[in-house]
Amino acid sequence: MEVKNLRVELEDRLILEDVSFGLRSSEIHVLFGPNGSGKTSLISAIAGLPGYRIVSGRIIFMGEDITGKSVEERARLGIGVGFQTPPEVTGVKLVDLLKLCLGKGSEDEFSAEEIRLIEHFRLQGFLNREVNVGFSGGERKRAEILQLLFLKPKVMLLDEPDSGVDVESLKIIAGEIQRYIESSGASALVVTHKGDILDYIKAKYGCVLLNGKLYCFMNPKRVYEDIKREGYEGCIKCQMKGEEKW
Ligand SMILES: Nc1ncnc2c1ncn2[C@@H]1O[C@H](COP(=O)(O)OP(=O)(O)O)[C@@H](O)[C@H]1O
Ligand SMILES: [Mg+2]
To answer: What is the 3-state secondary structure (H, E, C) of the chain?
Structure first.
């Protein structure tokens, strides 16, 4: 996927000024940025969610310009989103949504590998509950990422998959994301505030979204350490000086 000079408005306000990056097969990039910098907006604009108006720029996916395509078309092409705050879906059982993600009917059985994943994500006890209704933050995230893995996307846009997630669950979620990326050749953009997830995924670049623009594209652990030490502004000032720019 290639995002070229993306400029995005939300409610007549310019949120993303000029964002460019590329994701090759099997690559994971990690996106940092302060609250409100537009990380969720970037994911939403790439996915084609309503309200995010692409003023200029292009999104190229597997050689095709998808900038004008609907959210459904983009999803069918293989763009998958793990939402920051997955909503409650009343009246729909998790088991049925998971089967839908797999392209199965409600009468179809899960395969052994699918059951392994459900158990690994510790979601057996949730299958007959309504999606996310009464789930804790971490339980929602586990259910969300499992749905996404079952959809088998070509690009995963993961919006804070680690926020609100306990240490054990983070290891499980991030480990399975890494496994999927390695086995499928898919790629991922992972929004995070924390460095812990970097222990379980092999991210190629870390970058910072600030004032509507993306900076850096350097070693993700180093970007995280620099942010902790210098703050976002300090981090980009230092790293803009050069070295291994993308
Ligand atoms: N529906 C909306 N209407 C108006 N402003 C919004 C809406 N959603 C988000 N924003 C604003 O857009 C900016 C970027 O938000 P967001 O993309 O969610 O940031 P991040 O994910 O980096 O925290 C913020 O200032 C936020 O308040
Ligand atoms: Mg966000």
So the answer is: CEEEEEEEEECCEEEEEEEEEECCCCCEEEEECCCCCCHHHHHHHHHCCCCEEEEEEEEEECCEECCCCCHHHHHHHCEEEECCCCCCEEEEEHHHHHHHHCCCCCCCCCCHHHHHHHHHCCCHHHCCCEECCCCCHHHHHHHHHHHHHHHCCCEEEEECCCCCCCHHHHHHHHHHHHHHHHHHCCEEEEECCCCHHHHCCCCCEEEEEECCEEEEEECHHHHHHHHHHHHHHHHHHHHCCCCCCC
